[in-house]
């Protein structure tokens, strides 16, 4: 059955319930398609539905303001079938609405990254010459240790590692630096930017490797986390660490989760 036009339904007596069973109910400019639904009728309209109300394809739900304008909700064309579950309350000031990925919405508070502590290490002692003709890395002596004060923090690492390479052929030396957490390798960086001293015979090339790395270690509160660097040469040359007290530095920042 299709009810093509309904001007007025008048319940008998106050507080009565009217049940409408229909395929389509056409109420002027809006068409509501449903199987069976029931609601309480009042002078201001239906206040409660006991079943799902379906709005036709491409149509919207429009809520008018008390004095002017309206707010309108419409599904995206070709959108997937999704059910959104609203939060149980209005949230707090400055919160935002987030989803769990399954359509359940909740209020969340905006958080900004917070630096909980900073640790700085400096190495400006000239090291002995390290024979790096072998493929193995050598410790630089630059290291720093941090003890996280919060669970789940990340550690932001800045390294400026100076090293000095001796080579018999000008402009052929290159080196590698490795960043480590304890004995765990984190990242390898190839080739510093070197400058020749212009001499004859053995040549010296030197430069810095600058590193920025965000680490998310697994740790237990109260236990420290240590970081260090290693270097090697790519060209069977010797290298040393620092030169004329040129410093190498490491900075660790604990970032709150």
Topology:
Elements: E1 2-3, E2 18-21, E3 24-27, E4 30-33, E5 36-42, E6 45-49, E7 54-55, E8 60-64, E9 70-74, E10 96-99, E11 105-108, E12 115-123, E13 130-131, E14 138-146, E15 154-167, E16 175-181, E17 184-190, E18 195-196, E19 203-215, E20 225-233, E21 238-241, E22 248-255
Parallel strand pairs: 1-3
Antiparallel strand pairs: 2-5, 3-4, 4-7, 5-6, 8-9, 10-11, 12-22, 13-21, 14-20, 15-19, 15-21, 15-22, 16-17, 16-20, 18-19
Oligomer: single chain
Which CATH architecture of the largest domain would you pick?
Sandwich
Average pLDDT confidence is: 75
Helix content: under 10%
CATH class of the largest domain: Mainly Beta
Overall 3D form: elongated
N→C terminal distance: 60 Å
The tally of beta strands, per DSSP, is 22
Q: Unreliable runs, pLDDT <50, ≥5 residues?
A: 1-5, 22-38
Largest beta-sheet characterization: 7 strands, antiparallel
Radius of gyration: 35 Å
Task: Name the helix and strand elements from N-terminus to C-terminus, one letter apiece.
Answer: EEEEEEEEEEEEEEEEEEEEEE
Q: Which class do the helix and strand fractions yield?
A: mainly beta
Give a description of the structure.
With 257 residues, this protein is mainly β. The protein folds into 3 domains: 2-77, no CATH class; 80-110, no CATH class; 115-255, Jelly Rolls (Sandwich), CATH 2.60.120.760. It contains no helices and 22 strands. The chain has strands spanning 2-3, 18-21, 24-27, 30-33, 36-42, 45-49, 54-55, 60-64, 70-74, 96-99, 105-108, 115-123, 130-131, 138-146, 154-167, 175-181, 184-190, 195-196, 203-215, 225-233, 238-241, 248-255. Strands 12, 13, 15, 18, 19, 21 and 22 form a 7-stranded antiparallel beta sheet that branches.
